[in-house]
Amino acid sequence: MGVPLFARGCGSEKTMKTKHRPVEIRTSPHVKKAISVEQIMRNVVYALLPVCAWSVWQFGISALALILVTLVSCLATESFFCWMSRRDNTVRDFSVVITGLLLALTLPPGFPLWMAAVAGFIAVGLGKSLFGGLGFNVMNPALVGRAFVQAAFPVAITTWTPSFLPGRFSEFIPSTLALPFMSPVETREWALERAVDGFTGATPLALHKFEQITTSTSDLLLGTVAGSAGETAALLIFVCGLYLIARRMMDWRICAGVFAGVVLVSLPLWLFDPGHYPSPWFMLLSGGLMLGAMFMATDMVASPVTSLGIWIYGGVIGALTVVIRLFGGLTEGVMYAILLANALSPLIASVTQPRVYGVGRGKG
Asked: What gap in Å lies between CA 99 and CA 142, rounded to an integer?
């Protein structure tokens, strides 16, 4: 998450004297409600806490350790870069807490903790601080960290653990405590020994892509499947996102645009060959689509501000996600779709600027 709309673009300022007292007029966009960056960020943290709690309930102490390590890594990195640049420490605004939580929720529950610490450093250092800190990041910081470890540790990032394993609260997944620069302990046999009947370590997207097995809608909604630590319970994520939408701390049009993009691309394919292509419902509920649409695509800094641009931005994310999932080598495409849309955001905002009344196209 980035800086809220009202805190962006505070460039030129004017003071207009009214009958009662001077009124400060800032550059647009404007909001009518007085609310601080810290208040918005704190509410985003509140919305993410149930998702984190479900992750711990589903995957046990390994998920808890993963969340704590990424959180501490992000907080420490933020403090370090603020100290190096001699800026006020911005840890208290909760933005870096959001980065740490989101990063943990996008990683496999058995991801080695030292790799998670590296991901946290990259997310805040490269994805946020080097651009100037809060409000200046070009892309979602949590996804920048996730993309780095995807390239640096491809095996660990695609090693999944079945959910609700017996003993998940009394022992770590072996790969969690792997030493730095050492090969993670094999977890497949360990996981299968503890898995109940019917559970495997494959994610719903992998099962469909490679084995043409479709996971039931109820399992996708309730989160009884394997996957990243916080991406499995689509219904819970959606409800948590609705909390922010109800409080007007999230632009619902971005989420709706993402969902519309997914449906517009996946529906014709499914109707053409339902035996080969998954249904739009499956595409919406599986993988990290719901988490990405509700909490990452809505990053206020990396998304456009124009009305038409918001819909285009969301639609691009949804469409790219389906294309990568179905026709790419990866089973998941949400991360790259959002990062690419983040990169396109300035262009989208530029070409969708409303025309000034009375001014012809290409003038003024």
From this structure: 5
